[in-house]
Structures are given as C-alpha cells and as structure tokens.
Amino acid sequence: MTDLSLDKNSNLGTNQTPAISIEGVSYNYGKRLALDDVSFQVLPGQFTALLGANGAGKSTLLSLITRLFDTANGTISIDGKSFASHGSKALAPLGVVFQQTTLDLDLSVRQNLRYFARLRGLPSSLANQRIEETLSALEMYERVDERIRDLNGGHRRRVEIARSMLHQPKLLLLDEPTVGLDIHTRRVIVNHIHNLAKNDNVAVLWTTHLMDEIWDEDHLIVLDKGKIIEDGTVKEILAKNGESSVSDAFESIIVQEEERLK
Amino acid sequence: MIDGLMIRALYGILYREFLRFFQQRARFLSALVRPLIWLLVFSAGWRQTQGLAPYAPYETYIPYEVYMIPGLCAMIQLFNGMQSSLSMIYDREMGSMRVLLTTPLPRWFILVARLFAGVAVSLLQVYAFLAIAFFFTYFEFLELDIAAIGYITVLPALILCGFMLGALGMALSATVKQLENFAGVMNFVIFPMFFISSALFPLWRIKDLSYTFYQFCTYNPFTYAVELIRFALHGQFYAEGALVVAVTSVIALGLAIYAYDPSRGLKAKGKRG
C-alpha cells in the first residue's frame, strides 16, 4: 500500500488521505448486532462529534478503532493503513483519551508521561521537550512532579490529553472526555481540542452526550442502534431537520428513526 | 522482528515496573520477609531432624537450610509471578492495560515485555534474599554452602524459572475477570504448587512417605524449577528440569497471548455505549 503521509499544512477539501476511514464495519456480541455496516471518514483538521444514546454502539466502535476488539466484517484504516494489512502498526498515528482514567495513580505526572513516551518510541530528550510543551499548553506543567493520586478529576483529564498528544498523533480519539468535570474545565478542554484540530490539522473523533461541546462548524455523526443515521456538518444537519440547536436536532433525528422502523 | 520502537518500549515497561516496585515498599519487604521467615524459623526448627544424606547435586550431608534455599528462591519467583499477574488484572481494571494495547506494538511483544519486566524484578528480589542469607552465614547464624560461582551459574536458571512462573501467572490473569477473584487463584495455585513439590522435602523422601504424593510432585513444573535452581546454585546443569521449565513457559505464554488476542476481545470489556 502506498504511504500517503499527511501534509500538516494542507487545506481541507483537498484530496487528502482520511485520518480514519471506516468501511462496512459490523460487530456482534453473540447474536446481538452492536454495529451494522458502519462507514464514515474523518479528515485531517476535522473535529467530528459522535453522538448516540447509551447502547447505540459508540464504545464498541471505539474499541474496534483502538483494536481492543477485532472484526472480520469491514475495514478500518488509520492514515491510510488498515489493521488487516498493517496490524498494530496502523495504530501509530492514533492518540486516545479513554473515558475511564488510565493513568498510574501512584506515579507522578512526569513519570506517567515518560512511560508513555517510551511506549511510543520517543527518545528521552524529545520526550522531555514534548512533556513540557503539552503540559504547558494545558496549564499543567507546574504540577509535573505531583502524583496523579493527588490531582483532581479535571487535572487528571488534562494529563491524559497531554499524554495522548506526546507523539503528535494525526488522529485523536476522545471517549466522553469531559464527563464529571466542572464547567470551566470542560470549556478549557473543549476549546483546546477544537484548537488542535483547527491549528495543528489533527483529526478529532469525540464522543459525547453534551451538545454544548459541539460547534457549528464541526462534523457530526449520529449513531443509533448500531447504525449511522446522520453524517454531515452541524450546519447541514440543523438545516436538514429544521432545528436551531444540536440537542433538538438529535431528538428529532432519533424520533424520525424510531418512526421509520415501526 | 525487534525494532527501535520495541527496544524503547521495553525500556519503558521496565522503567514503570521498577518504579512501581520501589514505590510499593511493602511488596519489597514482604517478598524478602516471607522466605526469610521460612529460612530462619523452619530451618532452625528442623535442622536437627531434617539433615539430609548426600544426593545430587550435594556431595555430602547437608543441613536443612542448605536444602531449603533453592525452594525459597523459587518461592520468591512464584509469588512475584502471581504478583505480576495480579498487577495485570489491576491494570486491566484501572484501564492502564488499554494504554499498552493501543500502542503500535504487537500483542505478543507487549506480553513478553511485561513478562521480562516481572522476571527482572524477581531477580532483584532473589538476589536480595541470597545476600541476606549470605549475611546470616557470614555471622554463623546459618550454614549455607554456596560457592561464589553458584551465584552466577544460578542466574540463567532463575531467568528461565521466572519466565515460566510469570507466564503461568499471565495465562491465569487472562482467565480471571475481576481482581477480587484472584484470592482464589492464590489458594488454588500458589499453595498447591509450592507444597506439592520438592521445595521443602527431597523427592526420594516424599516417595518413601507416599508414592501418590510423589507422583503429584513429579507432575508439578514447580518441582523442576526448584531442582533446576538447586543444581545451578551448585554449578551443575539439570537438563530435564530446564526442558520441563522451558516447555511449560512456552505453553503458558502461548495461552496468555491467545487469551489477549484482540479478535477475542479483552476479558474485561468496557462499557457498551
């Protein structure tokens, strides 16, 4: 397969390799179909919000994208490299922030980040430089030597985001990253991630239940009962459904889908 | 193929394992205190009654503490192997395992690297124990008769045994769904493995007492680990032990890799949303 590296300065709308491409992916838990022929793409620099009620299949989809689960039905490619042909190496351009804290509570912020940097193959000097840069961007560098156990939920979340950015991923996956955080911290994180997409051309896939985290220029995917029922920009989806807010549009889409299935 | 990423990642996994080990001082102390209690209390109590006639690899009558040392080294590695598997379950529940599994490293490498880190920690524990035992010998509290070369020749045996016990723990950790269930593993794996082996009594003496018990001991790979260490401490190679330990390591590691295969998903699946 040709290596089509992303040009970080390229503009949207050009013929770019999608940061992630999902084609015809299905997944079953026994007889229950959790994902049904799901296909979509996220382009570099695009902030994509993945909306869906509980049980819609979001977590299954994220587990497949992160290769915690594997499926023979469909293809997942990250930066043009599919799991089927590249195996775990296809995960190289991926940064992940899980909903659950995945930091080592007894280690310091620096130790956690150094550990991750080594897992991603960063030399020590580069790791130290990136640790300083990413933590500073999230106003966390002054706490670099504190133990994770001593940090509050918002600060831990910032450390996780900093960690996910250490290897400068082309695709950033965030699974409901602001759950349980106060309004100020939520706003800081939402702004920071939107800026990463806009300024650094990072593709973002963000799952959420909180509609105020989705901006008008974002790309929106609505998942319901394992199927994608909407895929477009927020503006397009609002116009199509004749609604003025994302939450009203979401409810309207779900109701329409239920009526269609009756 | 091993590449630069793997070498750095291995260093990272070792870095974290040692950081955690030194921060958990109680773990380090208990790893030392447990075998020392066995050595000082049991060997002191039994040395008068359990002196042993010469048999390979020993060339003369030996006091009981000399006999116990290899079993206690293996016991340290057994507990460390189970501790590592406990930490795998903890990492899985806490989510740290997800961070490892979402790196561009092959699944088999992640497990082998974790295993390697666990073995490195167990070596540190065993040598710390041997150093303390040497200290007691120097001040004539004990009569250990290990030649200086024995501390070197035992290293490959300890590495091999550490891999086997770590791999067994890893395979077990893949089958245990929750941290709380691991107490059962302790009772049903660690204690039978240790007691139904040649760690405390030589096989010929067990055979005299009960042939059935002797047979169970010969089916236990831990027996071969103990004997491998025993021979190696006296500068000798025990081929049968090395073979059994190596084959058991490969089988256990294979099972662990199979159990952590992404096509089957992790045992502890996350929420489904």
Key terms:
heterodimer; A: 262 residues; alpha/beta; 6-stranded mixed sheet; 4-stranded antiparallel sheet; 8 helices; 35% helix; globular; disordered N terminus; B: 273 residues; mainly alpha; 74% helix; disordered C terminus
Structure characterization notes:
- The complex is a heterodimer of chains A (262) and B (273).
- Chain A is an alpha/beta fold and 262 residues long.
- Chain A has 8 helices and 10 strands.
- In chain A, helix 4 packs across helix 5 and helix 7 crosses helix 8.
- The N terminus of chain A is likely disordered.
- The longest helix of chain B is centred in the middle third of the chain and has 32 residues.
- Chain B is globular, with a radius of gyration of 19 Å.
- Chain B is mainly alpha-helical and 273 residues long.
- The relative contact order of chain B is 0.14.
- The chains are: A alpha/beta (262), B mainly alpha (273).
- Chains A and B meet through helix 1 and helix 3 of A and helix 1 and helix 4 of B.
Topology:
The complex is a heterodimer of chains A (262) and B (273).
Chain A: E1 20-29, E2 32-42, E3 47-51, H1 58-65, E4 75-78, E5 81-82, H2 83-86, E6 94-97, H3 109-119, H4 124-137, H5 153-165, E7 171-175, H6 183-200, E8 203-208, E9 219-224, E10 227-233, H7 234-241, H8 246-261
Helix pairs in contact in A: 3-4, 4-5, 7-8
Chain B: H1 4-23, H2 25-46, H3 64-94, H4 96-101, H5 107-138, H6 150-175, H7 182-195, H8 203-209, H9 211-219, H10 221-233, H11 239-259
Number of strands of chain B: 0
Please count the helical segments of chain A.
8
Cα radius of gyration of chain A in angstroms = 18 Å
How many β-strands of chain A, per DSSP?
10
Q: What is the makeup of the main sheet of chain B?
A: none
Largest sheet of chain A: 6 strands, mixed
What fraction of residues of chain B sit in β-strands?
under 5%
Give me the secondary-structure category of chain A: alpha/beta
**What general form of chain B does the structure show?**
globular
Report the span from N to C terminus of chain B.
37 Å
| Uncertain stretches of chain A | 1-13
The most extensive interface between chains reads: A-B, 48 and 36 residues
Indicate the radius of gyration of chain B in whole angstroms.
Answer: 19 Å
Helix content of chain B: over 70%
General shape of chain A: globular
Tell me the number of helical segments of chain B per DSSP (H or I, 4 or more residues long).
11
Structural class of chain B: mainly alpha
- Span of the ends, CA to CA of chain A: 44 Å
Average pLDDT for all residues of chain B:
85
Helix/strand order of chain A, N-terminal first: EEEHEEHEHHHEHEEEHH
